[in-house]
Write a structure and sequence with these properties.
Blueprint lengths: L1 H26 L1 H25 L4 H16 L7 H9 L4 H15 L2 H8 L9 H16 L3 H14 L6 H14 L3 H14 L4 H15 L2
Helix pairs in contact: 2-3, 3-5, 4-5, 5-6, 5-7, 6-7, 7-8, 7-9, 8-9, 9-10, 10-11
């Protein structure tokens, strides 16, 4: 009898603890997602820093480091945008600065400025910054309602299988384009794939939420 009572108490304790966790996530869901998005942004910059660390020349490292620092600080110091614009016009890492400038303008919703900045990211190595520019071009196409173009751009990145860029972000944006153009089945399949293959990432979590909504809407 005592053993059954203890078992019952443990089960009640587990249910209570799980219920508390569920209520907490529901209450602070928006804040948790925002925090996750910030972490994603930091992760992207961290990848850029790894590229920086791979450069041996001190002068080159300093120039690239300044560009990444300017980009990461733009939210707090938007007045520094002019410095990044100058860096995007000339220098060995102009295309890197252009990609970072474009990402900032996309965040601000200034699509014309973002596209203008991306025009400076052409040629060069198929590195992190190149694929970042392609991902941004896909996002801009989505925001402009050109979903077919977005899918084409992001599909090309997916097929390239870049080793130093976050493919889960690319796949998520592609799924968004498919969903918005009306291909619900294609979007659902891709959201589920992201949820499975990138379960621990921000996009994996959000893809799970999107997949659930699409299945409910069937």
């Amino acid at each position: 009898m005592k053993r059954e009572t203890k078992k019952k108490l443990k089960e009640d304790e587990f249910v209570h603890g799980f219920s508390w966790l569920f209520d907490f996530v529901q209450k602070w869901r928006k804040e948790l997602i925002i925090a996750a998005a910030v972490l994603v942004g930091l992760a992207v910059l961290w990848t850029g820093v790894q590229v920086l660390n791979g450069i041996q020349n001190r002068k080159d490292s300093a120039a690239l480091g300044e560009i990444l620092t300017l980009r990461s600080d733009l939210t707090k110091n938007p007045q520094n945008i002019s410095k990044l614009e100058i860096a995007a016009r000339k220098g060995k890492f102009a295309r890197v600065a252009a990609a970072q400038l474009a990402s900032y303008w996309v965040e601000q919703g200034a699509l014309d400025k973002a596209e203008k900045a991306l025009s400076g990211v052409s040629g060069g190595a198929r590195d992190f910054f190149y694929y970042q520019a392609q991902d941004l071009a896909g996002q801009i196409a989505i925001l402009r309602g050109d979903y077919d173009r977005a899918v084409k751009i992001l599909q090309a990145v997916e097929e390239a299988k870049p080793k130093d860029y976050n493919l889960d972000a690319v796949l998520y944006h592609k799924a968004e384009a498919l969903e918005k153009k009306g291909d619900k089945a294609g979007a659902l399949a891709l959201y589920k794939r992201i949820q499975t293959e990138y379960a621990q990432s921000y996009f994996g979590y959000d893809a799970g939420q999107k997949a659930g909504k699409l299945e409910t809407a069937k």
